[in-house]
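Re: the multi-chain job from yesterday

Posting the exact lines I submitted so nobody has to dig through the queue logs.
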Amino acid sequence: MSVPGIEAIGFTPWTAPQLSTDPLSAAGAVGGTQAPTGPTGPNTEFGNLVLDGIDRLEGVQDRSDQLAVKAATGDLTSIHDYTLAATEASVTTQLTVAVRNRALEAFNEIMRMPV
Amino acid sequence: MGAFDLLRIAGSSLGMHQTWLDALANNIANVNTVTSTSQSAFQAQMPIVQSAPTGGVEVTGIALGDPQGRLVQEPDSPLADANGYVRAPDIDLASQMTQLVMAQRGFQASVQVTKNAQDTYTAALQIGQR
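And the result, structure tokens for all chains:
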């Protein structure tokens, strides 16, 4: 898509991400020798997104746990380091759970779709 | 710029204020520490801070007070020299107490920022919820 009006003054128009049409065309092929392979595991974009989120969540929680141990053993140099890490871990967990819930909701919505 | 910059910036402020409070506590603790005139006096500590390029504040160093201090007449002190003088640190206790209040209020303000940050994140998580 090209919008000369705004490109002239230095803006590039936003283009919506294109969905890959490969699985659809594979599914539509009649008598094809290859069975349609659905999106599998972490190769899909959403899978990557979730895995990245969980990796990040794990890192944040690890940091919070390490600081909790430090607080218990008396090695904590500043209290706010731990409370901030705990807050970050809490918010990240809530965010990950929210994304997971929304994804599940979307999946259920599709499953309820009358065929 | 990450999602938790608000917390990171507030955290840097908390760290800076804690360093300041530590330095003030040390100064106030040593306000009556006298030394013999042959030695240098206790030097007051003052954190040197500047704004960080990525946001927030950072302590770049600790400035030290005058090692000369003040010469005080205290003939009874075991540290007194032949003329009865000892070296007291050049610290103004009133100024230190004022700075203590400023540092404490700054710390509390940053804590309030983190509370508001948490509320903000919680509000953002509720977008689209039914």
